[in-house]
Fold this protein.
Amino acid sequence: MIIPQPYLLFLGDVTDPLAAKTARGISVWRPEQCIGEMRLPGGTVSLGLDELDIATARARGAQTLVLGTANAGGFLPEHWKGTVRAAIEAGMNVASGLHYRLADDAELSALAAEKGVELFDIRHMRPELQVGSGKKRSGKRLLTVGTDCSVGKMYTSLALEAAMREIGLKADFRATGQTGILVAGEGIAIDAVIADFIAGAAEYLSPANEDDHWDIVEGQGSLFHPSYAGVSTGLIHGAQPQWLLMCHEMGRPHMRHLPHQPMVSLEECVEANMRVAKVTSERVELAGFAINSSNYGEQEARDYLATISAQFGVPATDPVRFGIADIALRLKEHG
Amino acid sequence: MIIPQPYLLFLGDVTDPLAAKTARGISVWRPEQCIGEMRLPGGTVSLGLDELDIATARARGAQTLVLGTANAGGFLPEHWKGTVRAAIEAGMNVASGLHYRLADDAELSALAAEKGVELFDIRHMRPELQVGSGKKRSGKRLLTVGTDCSVGKMYTSLALEAAMREIGLKADFRATGQTGILVAGEGIAIDAVIADFIAGAAEYLSPANEDDHWDIVEGQGSLFHPSYAGVSTGLIHGAQPQWLLMCHEMGRPHMRHLPHQPMVSLEECVEANMRVAKVTSERVELAGFAINSSNYGEQEARDYLATISAQFGVPATDPVRFGIADIALRLKEHG
């Protein structure tokens, strides 16, 4: 279930930079795995990679065409299909984050089988799962958790993996969402598994490992989000983390998409996550805070981070603005 | 998505009374909806209902044949298929709690379509779901929760529904597991929905209702069970209960199937459930305790219940041994 890299990133004909979030994430975190990008006429979004056609990308070693832009409705537009077909014919795998399954397209499936390549439907990829057991296992694990959805858990996890590797730690990012899966080349979209298997999926994703090896598990949702807390709970139990890293957006007024749902305090959120983690982890500590402060000026952000850091006695940073080296160092010294 | 009642309960040729748990549950809680039972040669389990063949059951008004026994592996044995076929040919619907989907059997599907009857695969039945919203809604809701799996949440919910109706309250059992769904004739197997939709499924099951109407929502799993806590969490958030009823088995040494996982204390379990419920419920109270005391003598059970009741200041009962009228009365007076 590993998606062969390197990739050719397909951007379609989108004009909204936000629609290319997945492709951008891959190009930021795994530039060495991106051979180039490809657009259709009318497309205005670029990642600044070499603009290549299928044949050239294939000649330069691209293994997989990635449909890296969201599409309203999540289907495969008819005028994108020619590119998918051409990639398969050139011997490339195709990975898609669309709701629509490439595997359900009889023509594309038959062509892929004929050419001996794979179609990866990221939202639907899952191995045969067991229910979680909660059995203790070796290795170190850190899970990013959050006050809410979309507060930077994936970014923080990948930034921490990079910072830990930089200071000589063995760290691997474990992906639980579609962009993360394309970055890592493997993983499970944990919100898409059958409810009984959430914790089991997290155990599968971060198995027993060497004592000095770190899994940095990408968190999802929030214990305080009325839509997704079940996923967050199962993920905490299954990941069995010794460390939690709390992510938050400074100044967010309420839970995402739910104006009636008040934002939880950092204190209550940390306590709740610790309590849930203790169900399967003998020892769990707070590694620090990763704060998205992009709506505030630098001094305001620094003041806020200093206040949190003093209150909880752990490092607090905005990883985009100020990096995450302090937290990596703390894990090296105390992990 | 309502399963037409009354039923003919099919027991196959099983010899283990435990394998007929689902059929027994239906006959205990909805005797008026059970026209009779049917066995194959070799079957030794009986529910004490009239033993009928398909034609007689149909003539007496049976609408649905229920495959009400578990089968190792969860598939449909070849020698049961003749009965299923005969039921469809006689114009009966078929409801199955097997893992195997009747709908995946081309012959049975075609026959059902031809005869204009439905195949209900309980484990796979689900409406188009939305993610949960946590929006406040009218009506009263009580959710059974537990220290563990298999501590009597379904029994307690159904016993409470009956006791509440007896004292004139408008109460409806809301089913979240397969036996409960067959008893109620509708519901969602909540551990079988996609993880993102757990809370949404619970909201769907217990929608806004009259101010004096009670939904008694069947709980699943436990916040402290490492396999299923995600389901339990989403169910609490989606059910948005004003009342929780805590179920527990007296003397259970550890979490079900997990000898390494210690049993949680009642105190910690009540607190954790209250905290989780408060994410979506403005006000939530403990209705009482339903304790399975079947491994203990009557006096020991009474002493234990009295101790808990004094400690928490709420009624504590073993609903099988002592009924659940006290809790129903408390809800009538304070609900």
Q: What stands out?
A: The radius of gyration of chain B is 20 Å.
